[in-house]
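seq as requested:
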Amino acid sequence: MFFSIIIPLYNRPVEIKELLNSLLDQSYKDFEIIIVEDGSINKADHIVEQFSDKLNVRYFFKDNEGQGFARNYGFEQAKGDFFIVFDSDIIVPPDYLLKVIDGIERDQLDAFGGPDAAHASFTPIQKAISYSMTSPFTTGGIRGNKKHVGQFHPRSFNLGISRKVWEETGGFKLSRRSEDIEFSIRMINSGFKVGLIPEAFVYHKRRTSFQQFYKQTNSFGKGRIDIFKRYPSELKPVHALPAVFVIGLVVLLMINAINLLTMNGIYFLSLLGTLGNFLLLLYTFMLFIHALITCKSLKVAILAVIAAYTQLIAYGSGFLSEYTISKLYPRK
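struct tokens:
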């Protein structure tokens, strides 16, 4: 089986060097790499050139249109039987392609997705963010594992499709924001067999600061409503949990403020505030203990609590704002 690995790139030359270095160590060698520079100012052509005698790699530059259309451009250049899409901020384990082949043949898949993990070289913040995005104490727990809710939808940081899927679907229809979920839904609706290969994980760096992480997960929340507007049945109760968390947090803060400002207190609000504070502290404690056991680092565990709150608040806020806009200005 010949693979075409497609990597969209935008102003991240350092990341692509790490990714290409990891691909040098693949046990399975029958693959090509197609890098599509999507209108970057800080180009990576000189970095890619360093690998031209070590890897079967081709570099293309195009005007900026977003990662979805950059991947489509890569599909058009691809020669492989199976296309694999990576984000530029990952590191690939040496046996990745062997695990992919085993999974495709075992489950007879037309398309697949794989999970992500934290690499030992990641910074404490990156490890904390990785924990948050895969934790059962956040909505990350439903992504990239066997216990996902409903039909599994591969995500574009680690996604593979057969040539037939590309030819029949035309690839990505959205350029940005939930473009991978929309593509996954169309693949499934077209009758292709799509599944998770749990063993085919990659090390995903994601973001390097909580500010960047907030912006990214806020976009995820908005993107979920984008999908809802196109495919209403794809919105599940679990997708609204971060929004419920945000509303509950705001209400609890208001109750606590009222209780502080009221000299004698209001019995019902006092009781409600005490219960809410207890549940929030219990959640935070359980989150911290689980992160400590999982990450085996006190510093990462503390940062993981911050990352989890950042994720839930950002996703929930994005979800609520986009949902409100969709109701005020419904799609015609």
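The two ends are 45 Å apart (CA to CA).
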